[in-house]
Amino acid sequence: MLCCCVNSESKKKYAELDAKLERKMVESRRYYPGHRSLKSMDSIIMMFPKLREGLRNIRNVFESYDQDGNGTIDMEELKECLEELKLMSLSEEEVKGLYGWCDVDGSKGIQFNEFIVLLCLIYLLAKPSSAESTEEKSREMGPKLVESIFDPIVEVFLFLDKDGKGKLNKADVIKTLNNEDYPLERSPKHVTNMRFEEMDWGRKGKVGFREFLFAFMSWVGLDDPDGYMSS
User: Fold this and answer.
1) 87, pLDDT greater than 90
2) What is this structure's pTM?
């Protein structure tokens, strides 16, 4: 459950992070051409086994830094973890802001699902906007493991973001997943409605990348051998 105990200063900081992330998603369309090859929910589901394998590897890293075994890592443990993954490209203050933004239950500790979202946001926000420095910077961003997990997830978001404005709107998501050009791969309308509601925490009809990430992780189903929930 989303924690509502957030002071006004934190709300302002998180709103700034949200706006920064929205701009980053708009920029990302130039650097992630893979979203154009996606056609339907079926093509997204086909990614799940590989993503699940990568997420399990990251879980091993998470557990190695959860020193007291309580299922969470604190800020100091996170910094050590980011150094191992070569993801300390943002300032400590920026990482602290993202840490608070991803601690959605207000427990003062990052659980694994929150950790995955946090890592992805750090990875994405630390990427350069300038095309000429992208390759050089990417070599500094850590192991291919991180890239192989998060790049396809960004591409899924961009596939669903048809108007290219950095946020998902309900009409576009439902239309995209019910693409009439692929009648055999269309998702039932009640399923696409349910999937959007899982992302749309504020029931505003607009979904940012952070909310999408939390929902997407549950769709992948880390410990679910059958993958995507078909309810």
Assistant:
1) no
2) 0.82
Residue with tokens 């500094």: 140
Interatomic CA distance for residues 226 and 123, integer angstroms: 28
pLDDT band at 223 (very low <50, low <70, confident <90, very high): low
3-state DSSP assignment of residue 171: helix
pLDDT digits (tens, 9 = 90+) for 150-192: 999 999 999 999 889 999 999 888 888 877 666 666 777 788 8
CB 83 within 8 A of CB 180: no
- pLDDT over 50 at 136, yes or no: no
Task: Report how far residue 57's alpha carbon sits from residue 140's, in angstroms, rounded to the nearest whole number.
Answer: 20
DSSP 26: H
The alpha carbon of 62 is separated from its chain's Cα centroid by a whole number of angstroms, namely 17
SS (H, E, C) the chain: CCCCCCCHHHHHHHHHHHHHHHHHHHHHCCCCHHHHHCCCHHHHHCCHHHHHHHHHHHHHHHHHHCCCCCCCECHHHHHHHHHHCCCCCCCHHHHHHHHHHHCCCCCCCECHHHHHHHHHHHHHHHCCCCHHHHHHHHHHCCCHHHHHHHHHHHHHHHHHCCCCCCCEEHHHHHHHHCCCCCHHHCCCHHHHHHHHHHHCCCCCCEECHHHHHHHHHHHHCCCCCCCCCCC
